[in-house]
Amino acid sequence: MERKRRIFRNLKTLAEAKNIVFDAFRGVRAGVETVPVRQALGRILAGPVTARRSVPAYHAAAMDGVAVRAADTFGALPEKPLLLQKNGHTIAVDTGDPMPEGADAVIMIEKVVAVEQGWEIREAAYPWRNVRKAGEDMVKGEIILPARRAIRPFDQAALLAAGILEVEVVKKPRVLIVPTGTEIVQPEQAAGDLPPGAILEVDGQMLASMALECGAAPEMRAPVSDIQSDLRAALDTALADDYDMVLLIAGSSAGSEDFTPPLLEQAGSLLVHGVTVMPGKPVLIAEAGGRPVIGVPGYPVSAAVAFREFAGPLLHMMQGVEPPSPESVRVTVARKIPSKIGLEEHVRVIIGNVGGKYAATPIAGGAGVISSLVRADGIIRIPQETGGLSEGEEIDAELLAGRDTLNNRLIVIGSHDMCIDVISSLLKEKTGGRVQISSSNAGSMGGLTAIRKRAAHFAGSHLLDTETGEYNLSYIKKYLSSTPVKLVTLVHRWQGFMVAAGNPKGIRGVEDLRRPDVTLVNRQAGSGTRILLDYEMDKAGISPDAVAGYLNEEYTHMNVAMAVASGAADVGLGINAAARALGLDFIPVSRERYDLVIPEEFFGDPKIQTMLDIIETDEFKTIVEGMGGYETGETGRVVI
Fold first, then answer.
1. What is the Cα–Cα distance from 418 to 626, expressed in whole angstroms?
2. Left, alpha or beta for 365 (phi > 0: left; psi -120 to 50: alpha)?
């Protein structure tokens, strides 16, 4: 029998949902506990702290010298020293010594000469010069740290100096994280390839670490099956154990197998079911037992958005502190970003300082692509009332990386090649992580366009001129006529047809693409590989309409190889190294030159020069040649 599908109830805007949720839990506060100062780093003070002793507790010499009465030194000059006799208040002192009774200044040792009768003073002093007066640092009874202060290392030192050994701090909110679903497998229990339908449980670790960053104490439990009775038992246990927040992973959307919404309707009050934000639309927030229970979407990016927008701020609110405001930077959108009206879209972008402006390029990938968060430098929020952003438009981006990182980042847009990943790794290693590369795989033509629009520091390109057999030069002349560039050869590489191991369909060349039992996976329009395939098909008299899968596109050689390895396609054109990485057979088609296109304005940049030095090293060449299908005989050659 077909199960009835639920629908989202009255989707809330992000602002509406936050108002509902934060109003519902505004009075919820974590408890208080006493901890030793030595163990209090990062903890939030529950109340103000007053000093139990003055610091210093007595008038003390601030440096080595002679304690004196300031009035006795009047008239002393380097050329006219003043002799002071030794007595009770004119004595030698070291830094930190108590000042003798009657003394109110210290003449530093460099301005004093000891003689038999006492000291020759070569400088006059004013009262309290070079003296740390009692209470100068802290006075007994005064507030030295305010409430809701996160304790820092120097705060610990001040507390101990003021005679305080223990402090009352806000308890870390206890957060229980419950993965749900019979298909969930813990990474530690996964051996080899996962069976179809199995899903590795990784969201829980991400959410636990995000909770730690918010000052909470997260706990993870083993995955719970999505049988409603099991979910109810897990929730009842969490509520009975007095957790401050419960995060239920997956089961929050509107599918027939999503039991979390009715479960929370029974256990408490369902506050929000669905928000007009993407990713993160299926988030669910409820009140049960006086505490928040959040149904977190199962896709990793959606889960991260749900935590950032709701769980994180709630955890800070429980501790009585404001969540930190993310650093933002004004960016120029490198290419058009479409968006659905009615949904606030959070777009992951790579950001780099290109020619004095921060350029932001969107990262492809949906809510399930966790690597898009790994690669992202920032998030652009597109308002729900707009239909996207135009190329060249300026907007604020919330940073996931520091501004210094952006200024030391090289942006590469263009054709995908695995050598770029090798360069990126070696560049980070050679510069101690200071210089990094962020890449966007937009195809060779996309790379040249990014260079023309000053959205990248360099591009990877392998555009074949089918009339001359030359690579890149004619395209640069046509599309970058007003942008002076340098063209540097990175590698020569072999392109060919990737097929399953053993070549079960007996594919021998481009002619086999006509066969109805052969399905192709293609590269995107504008890529050098697509141009090469079209050239080979044209020579063979094959129309794109005659090729099954011609419109099935991927953006990298590895994605093409994965499509073949997974059985989604029978053949794809790509580089030998990608086929070799996934154990595919390879049928050579063409040896091509892959170049780096670098604007002349950036060619002298030390970061670019360091990169060019790296590609000429034996280390780089050895790694690349070991991947298969690469030749480095002309690596580093400046073509133009």
1. 12
2. left
